[in-house]
Write a structure and sequence with these properties.
210 residues, Arc Repressor Mutant, subunit A, Umud Fragment, subunit A, 2 domains, nine-stranded mixed sheet, 3 helices, 11 strands, 18% helix
């Protein structure tokens, strides 16, 4: 690869350090602030140069600063997974909670094993605290339409999403979405109303900032 100027090396090092610390690339304005660069065009030019020289890789379908990553990111031998961070989901009463987002997280592949088709959501609320899922946590969700009793699921009720334990109650012809908080009541959905498309996925991992 072609050599870098000292300034290009500083930009590359900042992007790498940011990903290692936060799990996703910095925005153009964050790079501007950190590097003391007044113009966003100046940062964009550095990014384009780093891509052209082979030091940065860019998602061709996402023309965003956060869609970049260093070619040689210091992670485990199995590499990283880029996981979309879609927004927030409630762990309480359902409400409109899944928000489209352009952010992506870079997660060491060893943390999720062989899981595929995973996305991340940020939890809001306290209804899953007895399962160790707290307000502000990030959960990693495997996209699936199927769930078995006891799975922690992200489920959609109308246009509203919530995080709950899943239980099927055939004798009562209903689905029970059970909070893991003794102070909260379960949510019941009639079996003939509940559809497979209401399950967005099953929670397979969690990340918490201390």
């Amino acid at each position: 690869m072609k050599t870098l100027t000292p300034r290009q090396r500083q930009v590359l090092d900042f992007i790498t350090d940011h990903i290692c610390e936060h799990g996703f690339a910095p925005s153009i304005r964050e790079i501007c602030t950190a590097m003391g660069i007044k113009s966003t065009n100046g940062v964009s030019e550095h990014i384009e140069t780093l891509c052209r020289k082979g030091y940065l890789l860019r998602d061709a379908q996402r023309n965003l600063a956060r869609a970049i990553r260093p070619k040689h990111l210091p992670t485990g031998n199995r590499g990283t997974l880029e996981i979309p961070l879609l927004g927030k989901v409630t762990a309480g009463a359902p409400r409109l909670a899944v928000e489209e987002s352009e952010e992506r997280l870079c997660v060491d592949r060893s943390l999720l094993g062989e899981e595929r088709d995973v996305f991340a959501l940020r939890i809001v609320g306290e209804s899953m605290i007895e399962r160790g899922i707290h307000d502000g946590d990030l959960v990693f969700v495997r996209q699936t339409r199927d769930a078995k009793d006891g799975d922690v699921v992200i489920t959609l009720i109308g246009d509203e999403a919530t995080c709950k334990l899943f239980y099927s109650e055939p004798s009562r012809r209903r689905i029970r979405l059970q909070p893991a908080n003794a102070a909260m009541e379960p949510i019941y959905v009639a079996k003939d109303v509940f559809r497979e498309t209401m399950i967005l996925g099953v929670v397979v991992g969690l990340f918490r900032t201390l």
